[in-house]
Structure formats: C-alpha cells, structure tokens
Amino acid sequence: NISNIKLLNIPKVHDERGSLAVIEKEVLPFDIKRIYYLYDVPSDSYRGGHAHREQESVIIALSGSFEVTIDNGKSRERIMLNKPTQGLYIPTHTWREIDNFSSGSVCLVLASTEYNEDEYIRDYKTFVNQLLG
Ligand code: TYD
C-alpha cells in the first residue's frame, strides 16, 4: 500500500437536472498552474510512464474509466478511476502509468507546475536510482 497517494473526494451538487462537481482551493493539496486532458484515447493506449521531480498532480476520470498504476519504487498499486467526483492525488517522485481506457473516456489532470520537460523522469531505472539517492 502506497501511503502518500490520496483519493480526494470532490464535492458535487446533484438535482434532477444533473450533477455539478466543484473543485475549490481547499480540496487540493497545491495551487493549480496547468490543466490538461486526454481524450480520443484508443482503448489499447498506454500513457504516462514517467515520474516528476517537481510536479504534483490530481487525475480525474471526467468521463468513462481507466486504470492508473502507481509505483513509489518499493511497491506498485493499480487504481481504477471511474467517478468524476474522485481525484487521485499523485505527489512528486511517483511513477505513473495509465491504461485500460474505456471508449470515450476523458482523463483530466490538474498540475502544480507549468509544463517543463526537464522535471520529467521518463526512464524507470533513473527513477529508481534517484530514490536510492
Ligand atoms: P506525454 O508526457 O507523453 O503524455 P502522457 O503523460 O499523457 O503519456 O506528452 C505527450 C506530448 O505532449 C509530449 O510531446 C509532450 C507534450 N505536452 C505538452 O506540450 N504540454 C503539456 O502540458 C503536456 C502534459 C504534454
């Protein structure tokens, strides 16, 4: 079990017209600098496959479902995301992979940093070696 990842509960307002979910400051462990989303993803796609030196993020299945594999260098956990009111918080120095996308799924990512390729760790061995110091 990986302790520093968290499932955040996003409050929603539901009535006969539908549902409205709200992400306010207090729901998130960081200030948002960037938002991106994956859509039109083929079901056999494999995304992620990196860790970050600086970026923290929250991943939300806005529509449909997919599975996130989280790896802290010691253990691995596979988490199915399929609720727009659930956000998976991923701290820095955490390897993530995303696959098993359902048809029409949308993967929203809230990020704590601007895009900067230099803070990506895209090689698994490098990732593990960095953790060992
Ligand atoms: P990539 O990191 O491979 O996506 P994922 O983590 O979902 O598998 O990014 C795909 C491409 O998009 C890559 O060329 C970098 C670019 N990109 C940006 O230009 N800005 C961004 O904010 C992100 C997240 C990616």
Automatic annotation (TrEMBL):
<protein>
    <submittedName>
        <fullName>WxcM-like domain-containing protein</fullName>
    </submittedName>
</protein>
<dbReference type="Pfam" id="PF05523">
    <property type="entry name" value="FdtA"/>
</dbReference>
<dbReference type="InterPro" id="IPR014710">
    <property type="entry name" value="RmlC-like_jellyroll"/>
</dbReference>
<dbReference type="InterPro" id="IPR008894">
    <property type="entry name" value="QdtA_cupin_dom"/>
</dbReference>
<feature type="domain" description="Sugar 3,4-ketoisomerase QdtA cupin">
    <location>
        <begin position="4"/>
        <end position="129"/>
    </location>
</feature>
<dbReference type="InterPro" id="IPR011051">
    <property type="entry name" value="RmlC_Cupin_sf"/>
</dbReference>
